[in-house]
Write a structure and sequence with these properties.
This protein is an alpha/beta fold. The chain has two domains: about 1-195, Rossmann fold, CATH 3.40.50; about 205-300, Roll (Methionyl-tRNA Fmet Formyltransferase, Chain A, domain 2). The protein is about 25% helix and about 25% strand. It has nine helices and 15 strands. It has helices at about 15-20, 45-55, 70, 90-95, 115-120, 160-180, 215-225, 290-295, 300; strands at about 1-5, 25-30, 35, 40-45, 60, 80, 100-105, 125-135, 145-150, 230-235, 235-245, 260, 265-270, 275-280, 290. The protein has a seven-stranded mixed sheet with strand order 5-2-1-6-7-8-9. Strands 10, 11, 12, 13, 14 and 15 form a six-stranded antiparallel sheet that branches. Strands 3-4 form a two-stranded antiparallel ribbon. Helix 1 packs parallel to helix 6 and helix 5 runs antiparallel to helix 7.
């Protein structure tokens, strides 16, 4: 089958790889190279790197709505998208012989939108999955072709869950394509009464609000680790947090105060007298590090019992 693939991040690469094992990928569409301030250069997307490695034809439109003709010029049987990053216009959705499908990282109709994996963690969900759907002009609203569920483990963060769901999507994609070709898949309409949204993350989403409970704080840390990372400010310094745990003890202190310092953690009071123990951080101009290493260095002067987090 002749397939046009559209995707951008690491999530999409195993799915593209699995498609290529059985089908002809006639074009790969991905986002333009992004500029890294830290490395001071433009970086290709993971999908672009894979496409170049495999010698696949590549297209990187700044706006797919305005630059759709190069795609329309290529006959294909199917368009498959996986975390592409732009809205795909209707004229492209009906271009393939078998329409266009999307591999989405949630159990639709829950968490439609651009950040379903992160939002599921932030909201404390205990399960998620992959939904393969027909694409429509309305965001993630197409009929469901296939859906599979996995548990969200307590130790999962965004990084681990992205990997799990990417591999699950790769396991499912060939079965979905075969079913479409054979006409054996019965599409299921989404229940609009069950719809929730997973809007793209904002700068405000990254800020830890210690008025929330320690469980809510930990879920936000998990959902933002490792990109972009949750954070708070202490002595005017941004402290990014990549890992933490809910303490077994309570603290009678106003939210946002350091209440305990151990060898490998420091505890901050949260809403409901709960405590979050921070175990992995990063401060400006330094590498990501364990709190143990931080406390053995410059952190010993910064992390003090009774100190209040900047509000």
């Amino acid at each position: 089958m002749r397939i046009i693939f559209m995707g951008t991040p690491d999530f999409a690469v195993p799915i593209l790889d699995r498609i290529l094992s059985r089908h002809e990928v006639v074009l790969v569409v991905t986002q333009p190279d992004s500029y890294s301030k830290r490395k001071r250069k433009y970086l290709p997307s993971p999908v672009k790197e894979y496409a170049l490695e495999k010698g696949l034809r590549l297209f990187q439109p700044d706006s797919i709505r305005k630059e759709k003709d190069p795609i329309l010029e290529i006959p294909c049987d199917l368009i498959v998208t996986a975390a592409y990053g732009q809205f795909v216009p209707k004229v492209l959705l009906v271009h393939p012989r078998l329409q266009a499908i999307n591999v989405h990282g949630s159990l639709l109709p829950k968490y439609r939108g651009g950040a379903p994996i992160q939002r599921a963690l932030i909201e404390g969900e205990t399960k998620t999955g992959i939904s393969i759907i027909y694409m429509t002009p309305k965001m993630d609203a197409g009929d469901i072709l296939m859906q599979r569920e996995i548990p969200i483990e307590d130790g999962d963060d965004a990084d681990s869950l992205f990997k799990k769901l990417s591999l699950l999507g790769a396991e499912m994609i060939l079965e979905a394509i075969d079913g479409l070709e054979a006409g054996t898949i019965v599409p299921v309409r989404q229940d609009e009464n069950e719809v929730t949204f997973a809007y793209n993350l904002t700068k405000e989403d990254e800020i830890l609000d210690f008025r929330k409970t320690a469980r809510e704080i930990r879920n936000r840390i998990r959902g933002l680790s490792s990109n972009p990372g949750a954070h708070f400010f202490l002595d005017g310094v941004q402290v990014k947090v990549y890992a933490g745990r809910v303490a077994s003890y309570m603290a009678e202190a106003e939210p946002g105060r350091i209440v305990k310092v151990g060898k490998d953690f420091f505890g901050i009071s949260c809403g409901g007298n709960t405590v979050i123990e921070i175990t992995e951080i990063q401060i400006p101009s330094k590498k990501r590090m364990s709190v143990r290493d931080f406390l053995n260095g410059s952190g010993r002067e910064m992390i003090l019992i009774g100190k209040e987090i900047d509000q």
